[in-house]
Design a protein that fits this description.
heterodimer, A: alpha+beta, Alpha-Beta Plaits, two-stranded antiparallel ribbon, globular, B: alpha/beta, Polyamine Oxidase, Chain A, domain 2, 7-stranded mixed beta sheet
């Protein structure tokens, strides 16, 4: 999943149309839903570098995995 | 490390950067523009969405002024169609602007007292003909000396917030009159049938035709200094860091970002203090939507007295190719209650939507919202409020800023970026000869 970095995203909505899965909505702040396939296209188009790939994913047992 | 040499390195392909590079390459300077994004133009660009050429910021480029003149001077195609005179929505009535005497007509529609109209008109003409009011007073406070009529004050709030992206109680009165004198109040503007991106694209053609280069997906890591003088930058391209050497560096990244790229420790403390105290990003909210029927009789409507929305644009009437056949594309511009951060985005957007529903009965059934954008902070309406621009020269020798963070007083939007580019290019020409 892609994560929106709070404090960097200004809500310009540039990322909304570039997402091929229509997984991004933006009303003052970008939100990414579970249709995200990690294609990373939105990262390229964000003017502020406010999107990043989540480094840590939570597993079912609450364990963190890199 | 790959080395490359240019007369001028331009950081950022917004309209300030592209205007500088087009003027410089046209004059024979070897120029390179580097853009971190895959798409050029910054906030003057286009994103195709659901068949509509949506904007990344710029809605209506000025016509017949400094912007068009720059395109003529460098031989770039200026593909903009006039939007024509506005309609005003005031006290629930649509008012069409006559070719002359528009303001008087407008003020007369706001009051039953002809002497009030004359009082305001007289004050305006004195300020225009003799000397501008002080910058120590806001436009609203200045007007309050002549009228307390909220509808008249609302007319100025609409004009100012739509064109200058600050509220009338925030704009220095002096700045408004300089704006009227220098840009004629941004009276003539148009729509781009191929989207706003056609403007930077036309300049890009000039740059490449004249031997300049433009790299996209190429972020600048840092600006290089030699004995305290700017001499290029480290640019990442295709995963490789390259040392780009240049005699001059022009940054279109915004004054704050420029300082980050050059390193705060290398910059004069007075400049940093001025930057901190002066530069304040202008905020704007833009809503883009599509309908199956036209909703405006004209091509744009200035809205007086709504909660937040100050202007509605309907470019498809003059540029139907912007949207799929049979569809109409509209944009609403809105000013948050205050231009001072923080922006309460959700609340502000809610008030904008309430305005649209009230302005257009059946809005929900007939409209498909495409994009709701808030511009503020590091990706703002303008990098600084009108009248709060920094100088185009930085304290670092051979390092300039261009764009709407260094707007000359009295100018806004694209004309201000073009004028800042003119200042930079004039200075470059005085300092170095083209090597080509």
């Amino acid at each position: 999943m892609i994560e929106v970095i709070e404090g960097l995203c200004t809500g310009c909505a540039t990322c909304v149309p570039v997402c091929p899965e229509e997984a991004i909505s933006c009303f003052g702040f970008a939100r990414i839903d579970d249709r995200c396939t990690d294609c990373l296209i939105c990262l390229e188009f964000c003017p502020l570098g406010a999107l990043e790939k989540k480094k840590v994913q939570r597993e079912g047992h609450g364990q963190a995995r890199l | 490390m790959v080395k490359q040499d240019y007369d001028v390195l331009v950081i950022g392909s917004g309209m300030g950067g592209m205007s500088s590079a087009a003027l410089l390459t046209h004059a024979g300077y070897r120029s390179l523009v580097v853009e971190k994004l895959p798409r050029i133009g910054g906030r003057c660009s286009t994103i195709e969405y659901k068949g509509v050429k949506c904007t990344t910021g710029v809605i209506g480029p000025e016509m017949g002024g400094v912007l068009e003149k720059l395109f003529q001077d460098v031989g770039a195609e200026f593909d903009v169609r006039p939007a024509g005179p506005p309609h005003y929505l005031i006290k629930g009535k649509i008012l069409k602007m006559p070719p002359k005497g528009g303001l008087r007509t407008l003020l007369a529609s706001a009051t039953n007292d002809p002497s009030e109209v004359e009082r305001v008109m007289e004050a305006l003409s004195k300020a225009l003909g003799w000397s501008e009011p002080s910058k120590a007073i806001s436009l609203r406070d200045w007007l309050l000396q002549y009228t307390q009529n909220e509808a008249i004050l609302g007319i100025f709030q609409t004009m100012v917030s739509a064109a200058m992206l600050v509220n009338a109680d925030e704009l220095p009165a002096q700045e408004y009159f300089l704006f009227l004198k220098k840009l004629g109040g941004y009276r003539e503007f148009g729509y781009c049938p191929k989207g706003s991106i056609s403007l930077p694209e036309a300049l890009s053609k000039v740059i490449q035709r004249s031997g300049g280069e433009l790299w996209t997906r190429s972020p600048v890591k840092r600006i290089l200094l030699e004995n305290g003088v700017a001499c290029g930058a480290i640019v990442e391209r295709e995963g490789v860091e390259r040392e780009v050497k240049a005699s001059m560096v022009v940054s279109n990244a915004g004054p704050k970002k420029t300082v980050e790229l050059v390193g705060k420790k290398n910059v004069d403390k007075g400049y940093l203090k001025e930057l901190e105290e002066t530069v304040r990003p202008a905020m704007v909210i833009c809503i883009q939507w599509m309908t199956d029927r036209p909703v405006l009789e004209g091509n744009y409507l200035l809205v007086v007295g709504a909660r937040r929305v100050n202007a509605i644009f309907q470019p498809t009437k003059v540029c139907p190719e912007i949207a799929p056949a049979g569809k109409h594309f509209l944009l609403a511009g809105a000013a948050p209650v205050s231009s001072v951060p923080p922006l309460h985005a959700e609340k502000e957007i809610e008030l904008c939507m309430a305005d649209l529903k009230e302005l257009f009965p059946g809005f929900d059934q007939h409209s498909e919202i495409l994009l709701v954008s808030t511009f503020h902070g590091d990706w703002p309406g303008f990098h600084s409020w009108p009248g709060y621009g920094m100088s185009h020269k930085t304290p670092i020798v051979n390092l300039y800023n261009v764009g709407d963070g260094v707007s000359p007083s009295g100018t806004v939007a694209l004309p201000s970026t073009v004028l800042s580019a003119r200042l930079v290019v004039e200075d470059v020409k005085n300092r170095i000869q083209p090597t080509a």
